Amino acid sequence: MLCQFSFQNFKSYKNETTLDYQAAALPEFIKTLITKENAADLLPVSVLYGPNGGGKSNLLQALGCVISTVVKPVYELEKNRQEVVIQQKVDAVPFLFDQTSAGEPTEFRLYFRVEKNEYRYYLSIRDDEIISESLYRKTVTGKKPALIFEREMSDITIGPSVKSKGIGTNINPKMPYLSFLAINYDIDVISEVMSWLESCIILNYANPKTELQVLLVNDDPYKNQFIHALNDMDIDISDYRYDEDKKMLYMKRNIGEKEYEFPFNEESDGTRKLIAALPVILLALREGRLVIIDELDAKLHPKLLKYVIMLFKNKEINKLGAQLLFTSHDMYTMTNSVFRRDEIWFAAENEAHESEIYSLHEIRGEDNGIVKNTAAYNKQYLEGRYGADPYLSNMLGGAFA
Prior knowledge:
Elements: E1 2-8, E2 17-20, E3 45-49, H1 56-76, H2 99-102, E4 106-114, E5 117-126, E6 129-139, E7 146-152, E8 155-158, H3 160-163, H4 177-184, H5 188-199, E9 201-204, H6 220-232, E10 239-243, E11 248-255, E12 258-263, H7 269-287, E13 290-294, H8 302-313, E14 323-327, E15 344-349, E16 355-359, H9 377-382, H10 391-395
Parallel strand pairs: 3-14, 3-15, 9-13, 13-14
Antiparallel strand pairs: 1-2, 1-4, 4-5, 5-6, 6-7, 7-8, 10-11, 11-12, 15-16
């Protein structure tokens, strides 16, 4: 489970930026939190709002960059331990609006939990080469993290938990050492870390090809769960079939007493998106995975978007701590009946064209007071009270400010 993600010098983000999944001390939706004894409570969902060009997608790409950089070489050599659902590798592009940043490394820090262990992974990249890298581990009840490995360019230090394995340290400067270890050795701690990274699902619905990538299986329990979820959303599909000869997916519906088949590509835009996204979301819920989706709300009716969000917040369904991170423009779901205040984030560029993020929980008014959980979040956002340059304020020349 993701606890915290920090990065700097990536695309529109110059300074260190942190997305925190550790729950704040808030009274709302307490029963939806991911809990573990002696460990910080974690959020099941985070959403990022803001204007086009504000940096929403870039934040998701930063997380996709560190994950794909480590997972891709392992996957290409078929050494992965989990089924991988990542669209493409994301390159580490630095902030380019000043000469200093353009020549400096891009840095990533991942803090995540797997069972009883918490890991901190650091990766620094410049021009596709690994500048520095480290991995530390501690138990959720532990105080001091233990070194797994540290790397500064070609100089690698190995911690005692893997030192006895007689592993090599001569490595290609463009390959993460974590990937090298996962490819060449069977080490428990490395396998646990890689399994978590491989389990992360990255989808981008700004890319229209994503809707054509459908992950469906013929196992009855999974098929029934998928069809049941669609029916819950008033999409009356009774079955599906993939025609190997025509390379075509058909959706089946019962109309009266007769069954009809329709090609997948003749479904509406919203239905196609749901059919493509839902199997991946259900996979994440079954296995406790992190799902990262850019523009989840695109082409979806707001009630369907709310349905997907609430799947992750329902502990009867989300039993293994699956998490959802997505960007959205949808105002219907920006309410206190859907989100906690620390689950809502905003992204915007400042005057220097540097992206910044902040959560609704962090916002303070003129009286230094916090936003109350009884507030109309969407209304106040459109009135300009939360910053992030809401659209109506811009369009109407600040009339709502």
